[in-house]
């Protein structure tokens, strides 16, 4: 085996706690101002605390890197000013267990307000809270420590770094290299380095006196970076490799009393002592256990499971039960726990009259007089052994029992568990970096971690999934009908970085809910005694709604407004101040937008014009051109300027500055009022796409997530089985799919190489009911969750015995179909959020990136009301169906008249006695269309129980329409009085209906005036107006009329309440309760109407799949020389074969053509004597076929 490469010769420095390096940035011209900082180094230490880097500035900038509790803590501030109100201090913690004497790589990159910290390849990103973008430094920059910790802002530790650092690179400056070159006096004298020249020892080439660009060897000159280097102490140059501690042992996992070390000490003693160091992240576990008198009495030292405090239990003969608990006195340890991953020392002793414990130098003593002599046996258990108690999980070292060190090599193999590891500490900090999102605290045991999501507003195993809706529009889907106003908490970006906040949702307009964000300054606020322009200042507090959240809210809204009002008593608002300041003040008062920009207009005004509402419309009082309050007082105070601020980019009002209110003793003052911010419309909720083709789809970037993935969206559909989303990885074999199943189940399935994992939620209602449904799903290191609407979450726990496998996809995320364009989804999809990022699916369609089978917005086909004549539209999104059963029409869109031809007076009777609900009617709605030349016949008759219980609509002998009825209070008629003869062979439609409990009749034909006949004046309160128990409906004539008095013409669109008599005549199969006399005498006819058909939809053709523009074919791996040889041989054989075939063909042709052609006589003609016989003689090769001869005489 050969190894190629370069020898690694790093620049290393060893710090002893009293040594540090200084970059002298306080010298003239050496101060720095950077927008980008990059710090990179490696370190190794056994200490838990130590300052690695510190630098600051006279303008409150600072930058510090320190090792705190074995973690890397970075603190920085980009500067501030005295009146700043926002937070500018930033503290970020990364890494863990960094005191293990191993090399750790650190990289810290700041780009303006973005910070990335990487420790051993694990990165943490943070957005800094800062006012400025640059870091200024004009004082000394310390590496490895500081001479004094006083006045060092943000420094937590009070110890300098002890350990080794190599390749310390700060903004391109190799600090250790330049220190070794420019300050040789700082270097510790070591034999290994003294044998060679120090330039060669540091890896530099031999110095050329002409071409050498580096510094001279004198210590007074600058190094090659251009910065002057200083320092204090003695800096070591080599860092010896760490030596393994044979006393360290690791208890890898928890088992009930099974994993332990059994130690034997010879003979019984009257004194028990033990000592050890331990470190763990797991609360609970037995550290030391000893039994006395056959397990009846014992001494136990363990960690309790609630807070991780240490606990001593002693039960010995003749002694009362002794127990006490000891918390960790380190103020940085949460809840005083010892399960913080740091080393802790324990010394324990029991003698005749006391129980003494020393933990991290703190002593605990329990005085006790033992009535009986103490006799401790020789068996002791370390790390477990106590029945019904869990073993200790973590690391121990320097274990000693009764003043004798416990050596792993000298232990009996049968007295120690095979799972225990000797020589190194193998514990993992599962809470670093914090896997819990949204600043939720993390706890852990030896197997896993836990997140406390209390009061975070998020749920799930890692507090990643928001518990709130994304907008008032989404709230309205579930609770909009409960109350016209609801105070709720919304989370605009779901699992994103924006915090949830409280709003007031107004559902007065169900189609456009309004969102209101209130602040703490309610009503009018008095301003008095602030004369200078802008001397009064107040910042509005919108609760938990941050500037970023309000920016997102107004960006999504269609319209926003905020009402403002200003009442003044001789105090101006937008007039230009005179005699104040340096003359640069534009107005007496102004307000600041959410983006921090001053705005010099008031309610009703517009940006750029220093005016109020009255100034825009030229209606201000007095001589003012800007505001009422800017007039010279021609009207009696108070004057008022009110209006709405509607420019979304400025809203809401963030700060208010006012002036010109005099002193507290004069008559100048003002009051102002800022109302809540109101926004309506929701572009995010309207970010919707409709799928109208089963093979239509959207393609989004493939799913990417490191450790947490979440998605939420809304859908509305009528399809029972469909794939909403699918993503695959062709190389990795990973798979992701969301599917609707059977109309009542929603499935989330994925495969990351460990088999198909499925989560399915079955609902008690239909998911394809054409209503909006909310889907939320999440996958993280601990579990996968699926939530549909408000149903309980379906949870799939990730296996903890294997590492977490992330999604690895190389294909786009297909939305609407599978990758093969099958199992298509039709319906609406909205509010798609992936990892807190809004997916602009509507924009993709509107910009024309994808259009096949897609429509922007939610556009169900039934929303265009395609069904005519009150037909019911059934939505399928890819098509629609018109249910015409409750109309007197037929056809694809209920646009075909169903009529019947009545010739020679036929009669139609529809028997209603079989109906269950024939209880009678007080009010009816009757309509019928007709076309006739005859002035007689019944259009429709409803016959009730009894001979005097009927309603008849007929054509009278004047060519009009008469309603003849008797429903219990006598026989009456209602007749049209039109001058038009309706029996004119034209189409007419009759509408008749009763109101007011059957006391008022209404009759109208076509668009002629409505005829109203009120019978209430002649009826008593108890009069019978009910048509009792309808028995039958007659068309054309009834049974008492002769055929010649029946209706003769065409009748259509007949309806009596919810019955459609003419449709019933032509039902298939034939209705047994419909009788026609004579049979089949009424034929179906459209009565001259043409059927109305829908306009044809444009034909859409799926565009062809584009060929990859940069497709590179994979080259063949065979040897080209071998290929050419084979091709040459085969080609030569083919040529030879073709040549041989050509020769054979030519030879055959020559043989057949050996006899040449001639004019000589045929073979049979040579033996005849005359010419005639020669011509008649046949060829000898042919049969004799002579013809008969004819002779002339």
Automatic annotation (TrEMBL):
InterPro entries in the record: ConA-like_dom_sf, EGF, Laminin_G, Neurexin-related_CASP
Membrane spanning residue stretches: 1126-1149
Laminin G domain span: 12-192, 248-425, 681-858, 899-1087
GO annotation, cellular component aspect: membrane
Domain EGF-like: 427-464, 859-895
Statement: the UniProt record of this protein carries the keyword Electron transport: no
Keywords: Disulfide bond, EGF-like domain, Membrane, Transmembrane, Transmembrane helix
Source domain of life: Eukaryota
PANTHER family named among the record's database cross-references: AXOTACTIN (PTHR15036:SF49), PIKACHURIN-LIKE PROTEIN (PTHR15036)
The protein's name in its UniProt record: LAM_G_DOMAIN domain-containing protein
């Amino acid at each position: 085996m050969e190894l190629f490469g370069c020898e690694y010769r790093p620049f290393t420095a060893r710090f002893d706690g009293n040594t540090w390096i200084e970059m002298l940035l306080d010298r003239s011209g050496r101060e720095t101002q950077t927008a980008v900082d990059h710090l990179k180094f490696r370190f190794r230490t056994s200490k838990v605390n130590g300052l690695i880097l510190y630098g600051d500035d006279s303008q409150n900038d600072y930058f510090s890197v320190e090792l705190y509790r074995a973690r890397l803590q970075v603190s920085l501030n980009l500067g501030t000013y005295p009146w700043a109100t926002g937070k500018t201090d930033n503290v970020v913690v990364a890494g863990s267990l960094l005191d293990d004497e191993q090399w750790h790589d650190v990289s810290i990159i700041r780009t303006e307000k973005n910070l990335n910290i990487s420790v051993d390849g694990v990165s943490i990103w943070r957005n800094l809270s800062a006012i400025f973008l640059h870091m200024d430094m004009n004082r000394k920059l310390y590496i490895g420590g500081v001479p004094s910790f006083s006045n060092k802002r943000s420094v937590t530790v009070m110890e300098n770094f002890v350990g080794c650092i190599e390749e310390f690179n700060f903004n391109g400056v190799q600090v250790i290299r330049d220190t070794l070159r420019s300050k040789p006096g700082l270097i510790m004298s070591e034999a290994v380095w003294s044998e060679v020249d120090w330039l060669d020892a540091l890896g530099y080439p031999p110095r050329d006196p002409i071409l050498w660009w580096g510094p001279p060897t004198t210590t007074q000159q600058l190094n090659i970076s251009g910065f002057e280097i200083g320092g204090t102490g003695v800096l070591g140059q080599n860092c010896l490799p760490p030596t393994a501690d044979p006393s360290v042992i690791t208890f890898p996992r928890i088992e009930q009393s099974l994993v332990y070390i059994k130690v034997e000490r010879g003979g019984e003693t009257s004194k028990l002592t033990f000592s050890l160091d331990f470190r763990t992240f797991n609360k609970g576990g037995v550290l030391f256990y000893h039994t006395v008198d056959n397990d009846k009495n014992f001494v136990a030292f363990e960690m309790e499971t609630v807070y991780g405090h240490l606990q001593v239990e002693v039960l010995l003969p003749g002694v009362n039960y002794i127990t006490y608990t000891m918390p960790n006195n380190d103020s940085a340890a949460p809840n005083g726990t010892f399960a913080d991953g740091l080393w802790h020392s324990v010394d324990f002793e029991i003698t005749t009259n006391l129980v003494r414990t020393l933990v991290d130098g703190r002593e605990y003593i329990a005085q006790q007089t033992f009535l009986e002599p103490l006799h401790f046996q020789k068996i002791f258990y370390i790390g477990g052994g106590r029945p019904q108690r869990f073993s200790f999980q973590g690391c121990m070292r320097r274990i000693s029992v009764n003043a004798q060190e416990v050596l792993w090599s000298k232990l009996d193999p049968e007295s120690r568990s095979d799972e225990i590891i000797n020589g190194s500490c193998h514990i993992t900090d599962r809470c670093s970096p914090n896997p819990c999102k949204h600043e939720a605290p993390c706890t852990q045991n030896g197997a896993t971690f836990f997140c406390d999501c209390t009061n975070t507003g998020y749920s799930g195993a890692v507090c990643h999934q928001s518990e709130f809706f994304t907008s008032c529009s989404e709230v309205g889907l579930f609770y909009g009908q409960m109350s016209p106003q609801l105070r709720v908490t919304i989370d605009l970006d779901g699992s994103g970085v924006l915090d949830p906040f409280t709003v007031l949702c107004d559902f007065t307009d169900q189609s456009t809910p309004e969102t209101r964000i209130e602040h703490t300054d309610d009503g009018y606020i008095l301003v008095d005694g602030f004369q200078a322009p802008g001397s009064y200042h107040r910042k509005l507090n919108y609760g938990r709604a941050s500037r970023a959240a309000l920016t997102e809210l107004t960006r999504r809204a269609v319209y926003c407004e905020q009402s403002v009002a200003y009442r003044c008593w001789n105090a101006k608002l937008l007039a230009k101040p005179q005699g104040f300041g340096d003359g640069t003040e534009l107005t007496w008062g102004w307000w600041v937008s959410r983006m921090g920009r001053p705005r010099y207009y008031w309610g009703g005004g517009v940006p750029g014009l220093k005016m109020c509402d009255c100034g825009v419309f030229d209606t201000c009082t007095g001589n003012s051109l800007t505001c009422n309050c800017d007039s010279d007082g021609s009207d009696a105070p108070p004057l008022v300027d009110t209006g709405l601020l509607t420019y979304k980019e400025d809203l809401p009002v963030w700060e208010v500055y006012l002036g010109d209110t005099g002193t507290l003793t004069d008559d100048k003052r003002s009051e102002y009022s800022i109302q809540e911010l109101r926004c309506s419309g929701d572009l995010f909720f309207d970010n919707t796409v409709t799928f109208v083709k089963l093979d239509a789809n959207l393609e989004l970037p493939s799913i990417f997530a490191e450790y947490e993935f979440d998605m939420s969206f809304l859908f509305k559909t009528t399809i029972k089985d469909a794939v909403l989303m699918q993503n695959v990885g062709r190389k990795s074999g990973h798979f992701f799919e969301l599917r609707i199943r059977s109309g009542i189940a929603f499935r989330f399935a994925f495969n990351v190489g460990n088999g198909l994992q499925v989560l399915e939620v079955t609902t008690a209602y239909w998911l394809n009911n054409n209503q909006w449904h909310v889907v939320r799903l999440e996958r993280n290191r601990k579990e996968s969750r699926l939530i549909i609407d408000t149903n309980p979450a379906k949870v799939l726990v990730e296996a903890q015995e294997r590492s977490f496998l992330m999604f690895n996809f190389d294909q786009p995320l297909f939305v609407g179909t599978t990758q093969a364009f099958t199992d298509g989804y039709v319906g609406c999809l909205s509010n798609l959020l992936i990892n807190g990022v809004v997916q602009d699916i509507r924009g993709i369609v509107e910009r024309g990136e994808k259009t096949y089978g897609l429509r922007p917005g939610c556009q169900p086909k039934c929303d265009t009301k395609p069904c005519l004549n009150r037909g019911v539209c059934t939505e399928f999104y890819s098509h629609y169906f018109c249910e015409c059963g409750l109309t007197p029409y037929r056809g694809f869109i209920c646009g075909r008249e169903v009529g019947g031809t009545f010739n020679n007076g036929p009669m139609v009777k529809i028997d209603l006695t079989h109906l269950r609900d024939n209880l009678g009617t007080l009010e009816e709605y009757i309509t019928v269309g007709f076309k006739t030349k005859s002035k007689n016949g019944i259009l429709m008759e409803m016959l009730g129980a009894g001979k005097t219980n009927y309603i008849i609509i007929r054509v009278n002998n004047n060519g009009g329409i008469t309603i003849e009825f008797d429903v219990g209070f006598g026989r009456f008629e209602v007749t049209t009085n039109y001058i038009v003869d309706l029996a004119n062979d034209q189409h007419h439609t009759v509408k008749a209906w009763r109101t007011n409990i059957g006391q008022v009749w209404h009759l109208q034909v076509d668009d002629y005036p409505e005829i109203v006949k009120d019978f209430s004046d002649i009826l008593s309160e108890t009069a019978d107006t009910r048509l009792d128990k309808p028995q039958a409906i007659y068309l054309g004539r009834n049974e008492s009329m002769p055929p010649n008095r029946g209706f003769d013409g065409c009748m259509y669109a007949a309806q009596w309440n919810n019955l459609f008599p003419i449709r019933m005549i032509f039902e298939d199969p034939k209705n047994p309760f419909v009788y026609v006399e004579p049979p089949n005498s009424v034929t179906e006819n459209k009565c001259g109407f043409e059927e109305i058909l829908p306009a044809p939809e444009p034909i859409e053709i799926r565009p062809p799949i584009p060929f990859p523009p940069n497709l590179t074919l994979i080259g063949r791996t065979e040897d080209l020389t071998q290929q050419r040889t084979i091709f040459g041989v085969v080609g030569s054989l083919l040529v030879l074969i073709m040549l041989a075939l050509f020769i054979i063909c030519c030879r055959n042709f020559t043989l057949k053509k050996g006899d040449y052609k001639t004019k000589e006589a045929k073979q049979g003609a040579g033996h005849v004597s005359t010419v005639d016989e020669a011509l008649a003689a046949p060829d000898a090769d042919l049969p004799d076929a002579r013809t008969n001869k004819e002779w002339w005489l």
